[in-house]
Amino acid sequence: MSDVEAPPSRNPGEPVFVIPCDSYEKDLLTGKIGEAMQAIGLTPLMLNGKRIAVKPNLVIRKDPSIAATTNPVFLDAFLSWLESFCEPKDLVLAESSGGPYTEASLRAIYRECGIQRAVETHSIRLNYDVSSKSVSAPSGKACRQFDLITPIEEADVIFNLSKLKSHSLTRMSGAVKNTFGCIPGLTKFEYHARFPKNDLFQSMLVDLSDLLHSSRTVIDLQDAIIGMEGNGPTAGTPRKIGVVLCSRNPFCLDRIAEAILGCPGETGMLKEASERGFCPERADEVVSLGADWQEYVLSDFKAPDSRVSLSSALSWLPNLFGGKVYAWFEPRPVIRKKTCVGCGECARSCPVHTITMVPDRKGKRHARINPDSCIRCFCCQELCPFRSIDIRKNPVLKGLAALRR
Ligand code: SF4
Ligand code: SF4
To answer: Which ligand number lies closest to the CA of residue 350?
Structure first.
């Protein structure tokens, strides 16, 4: 593809529109979303008669108040704007959450995340087709073949509605990470097993985002009104951020989001995207429109425990120790036996099958992790419905990090 034909997602000069917004008020949000779409150059002609898929973040079956999933009011406001703006041929909400991708699980997710109620007054249909299609990604660097859920693969236009959160594996979850929910259910764990090294996994995420964005029109709209800090994407705590971000380049958008979270340059997928020329290396090099994002930077945004400080402490260990010893230093998932109910969700989600269910002395079942084969993907922590998996930092590493402060 020549430079002239490069899609917006590969253009590091693609603007990001920043909308100040500190509450979920539907009418206010509807107006602001319309303003942002106009600012990034979206027209009804680009959408009329098209098959449109709306891709929210429904990573886990939880009440929206915990801020792990797309806020229903945000979705309601977005749909109100969309329906007043264009006349699509088809409009479908499509997402593959963290667990199994079945009609029953989709029904439960839509209900418990407040999505079913949010769409009641809209013409959008909720997807129950659990088929998927294999798609080749000739430009992929880490991965050249992806399984995509059918409504996403068939869409002419995708609205990628991400939620800004911390993330135990990838540091942050935003526009780029949200596209991982286009991979069907448990197949996602196969990707974790195929790309066990974090940098390779994040390179694969760039391939996936690039594939989706370069093969159709994708608009990225990010809910950063209330995000999640700490042990995201599901076990952290809600945190007010106060903005909505919009762009046609997910890498530029996330570059600004990353800076807002106070961790500029720490996200592997954005480093990879910069190296490929898809976005600038620094947030202040991104073209931003609307409000000044620098006013929203959070210097005290809590990082996930998995990050103790691979960057601060490990980085100054001699290279000699960077190999085998590294694994010993890495934070690892630990089962909190007191609250573990033995549901087995973590064992089902572990891509390398290193979790077993065992009885304790009283016969109560709980999960046990074999640390030797754990690849530190943190899928188990992400998907434990009872927040019974902690990320334990190596005490030596904690000490080293403290010494450096
Ligand atoms: S750790 Fe969580 S997911 Fe695993 S068995 Fe216990 S409660 Fe279930
Ligand atoms: S135990 Fe948890 S962190 Fe380790 S490989 Fe399995 S799912 Fe990933």
So the answer is: 2
